[in-house]
Amino acid sequence: MVVAALVQGAGGDPLGTALSLAVPAEYKNLIEEAGTTCPAVSPNLLAALLTQESGFNPKASSPAGAQGIAQFMPSTWEKNGIDGNSDGKRDVWDPEDAIPSAAEYLCDIGKEVKDVPGNKQNNMLAAYNAGSRAVHKYGGVPPYRETQNYVRSISALADTPTGRKMTTTEQAATAINAASDELGTPYSWGGGNANGPSTGSCCSPKGSSGKNIKGFDCSGLTLYAYAKAGIALPRTAAQQYAASEPVKPGQKRPGDLVFYGSSPTRIHHVAIYVGGGYMIEAPRPGTSVRFSPIDSMSDLYAVARPVRHTNKEI
Questions:
Q1: Helix, strand, coil shares, percent, the chain, to 5
Q2: Do 51 and 99 form a contact (C-beta atoms < 8 A)?
Q3: Residue 160 in contact with residue 310, Cβ under 8 Å?
Q4: Which neighbouring-strand residues pair with 67?
Q5: Is the pTM of this model over 0.70?
Q6: pLDDT, tens digit (0-9, with 9 covering 90-100), for 120-173
Q7: Which of 23, 71, 139, 247 has the most Cβ atoms closer than 10 angstroms to its Cβ?
Q8: Which CATH number is correct for 165-187+225-308, 3.90.1720.10, 3.50.50.60, 3.10.150.10, 3.40.800.20?
Q9: What number of helices (H) and strands (E) belong to the chain?
């Protein structure tokens, strides 16, 4: 679960404008300091990692047993946790210990996988998620869907250009109209791209295949709709969250993306908010693109606004 150059924002902010907006003020100094632990780690990368791991929730815990803001497994914490605030104890639930520990651990595993072929940052992140042994075994990022999505999501967030611009109301309207034109299009697992509906792939967690169905899955629809507005989104729902700017529930507006799941790494659904408490979505196998209330699922995680990435495609 846990190398980019330091990104300077306006006014010399080491976190950069893009990430300083999302980093809680109480953790900013910790991240700035810990993010210079070694050349392989930057404040941007560390902030992206914590966003992905816990959304900066120091009380976060996972079904697998990961704990705290940096989601250390107990055995990993026992071996690698440090007393970051020098209060005489190592506490995985204390961000003053966990954040510096995450940086130290990244530095250590970065050294462990430095000779593995491929992108060094990707290999380091994969080792944080799946372990250094797996990275060595596969000669790079392991072929685990969770680990591959994890690496892509953190890299997309960490490498987001500073000074990024939010979508305009005109672009949001274009995206909504594009999605609305697809009402009734079948759901296809893995289906949909920037050009429109397409046959999908196999298989969903429940075994559904999109190989013989031309249509959209949830993130395929949002990707297509925003491509019509000139905005490139990543492919999966979790990656789209990482590449968007969270907004407070009371500040959502039509065109914002609505995400469902239990954490940044466990987002399983995305839709486009259209106003009045409704969204347009490609819900699940056996359904088609439709309007639904945003409270039709109980695990609404966040609302976020797509960002115009003008410097490079995600």
A1: 40, 15, 45
A2: no
A3: no
A4: 61, 72
A5: no
A6: 999 999 999 999 999 999 999 999 999 998 998 888 777 655 555 678 888 999
A7: 71
A8: 3.90.1720.10
A9: 11, 9
- Contact partners, residue 41, CB within 8 Å, separation at least 6: 3, 34, 35, 103, 106, 107, 110
Mean pLDDT, the chain, integer: 86
- What tokens does 188 get? 């296809």
Taking CA atoms, 203 is separated from 185, 191, 200, 212, in Å, by 19, 11, 9, 12
| Catalytic member of 26, 32, 33, 53 | 53
Q: Work out whether the CA dihedral 302, 173, 163, 107 comes out positive or negative.
A: positive
In this structure, the number of other CB atoms found within 10 A of the CB of residue 124 comes to 27
Active site residue 53: yes
- Which class is 10-158 in CATH? mainly alpha
The domain spans of the chain are 10-158, 165-187+225-308
Quick one: CA torsion of 217, 298, 167, 14, rounded to 10 degrees? Answer: -110
